[in-house]
Amino acid sequence: MGEPHPKLETTDLSRTFGRGSAAVDALGPLDLTVAPGEFVCIVGPSGCGKSTLLRIAGGLLRPSTGELAIRTSSPRPAAMIFQDYGIYDWKTVLANVRFGLDIQRVPRREANARARDWLARMGLADFASAYPATLSGGMRQRVAIARALAVEPEILLMDEPFAALDAQLRTILQDELLDLTQTTRTTTLFITHSLEEAIVLGDRVLVMSARPGRIIAERRPPFPRPRSGDVRSAPEFTTLKSELWELLRPEAVPA
Ligand code: ADP
Ligand code: MG
């Protein structure tokens, strides 16, 4: 018995934007694996290539060198939650959540049922026919999460999904995401600025260097699953947070 095949694997992955004297080396080279069911968090300084990595994983951008492989066991898609929510204001909440299912041509009755089920799980059952403009930021974010999860993705790709939210809401949604991913065992690659968030959520926390971002350290938060938000008050939490900050600080300071 060896390790199961990784769900996501990058080999010598890099990305450069532009060419010649204007070229910007944004990412890598980077070797990364994410096991089935694993929740991997990536922290790194601003501009180090985190969104570039997620966009490559989401199929929105090509690598310059190397490759990124996602092993799918079914035709289910990977899903990405964009930094800016990507919610359509002219669609109802239900239609937004159903969006990925419509693209997959899931029959309308089934798609509606699945979308309503996810809305209920996100506490939004009463808002199915509302328009996003009438919702709070936190509710819009939950719509985005419901939309991503409704397609039952093989891999959830999240790029600082809670960055725009206030601290309380952020904590609540972290706890919800923890519950959800521990129930569904969804393989997740999660980018965040927040060390707390990475420690609460991650099976592993990867630290990236300044641009071009490479992985310079890896830590496993010492909290067994299923875990709850209570780990925030554990002494090991504070210790790990300081340790991660010591690793990150030299990268975050302009040279
Ligand atoms: P992060 O998400 O870690 O803040 P990004 O992946 O967005 O960083 O960007 C990494 C680097 O690549 C930055 O220097 C950014 O300016 C540059 N970059 C990102 N996208 C493009 C693009 N489409 N064209 C040119 N440069 C880009
Ligand atoms: Mg980014």
Automatic annotation (TrEMBL):
One of its GO terms (molecular function) is ATP binding. SUPFAM superfamilies: P-loop containing nucleoside triphosphate hydrolases. SMART domains: AAA. Pfam families: ABC_tran. Residues 8-235 form the ABC transporter domain. InterPro entries: AAA+_ATPase, ABC_transporter-like_ATP-bd, ABC_transporter-like_CS, ABC_transporter_ATP-bind, P-loop_NTPase. This is ABC transporter ATP-binding protein. It comes from Streptomyces sporangiiformans.
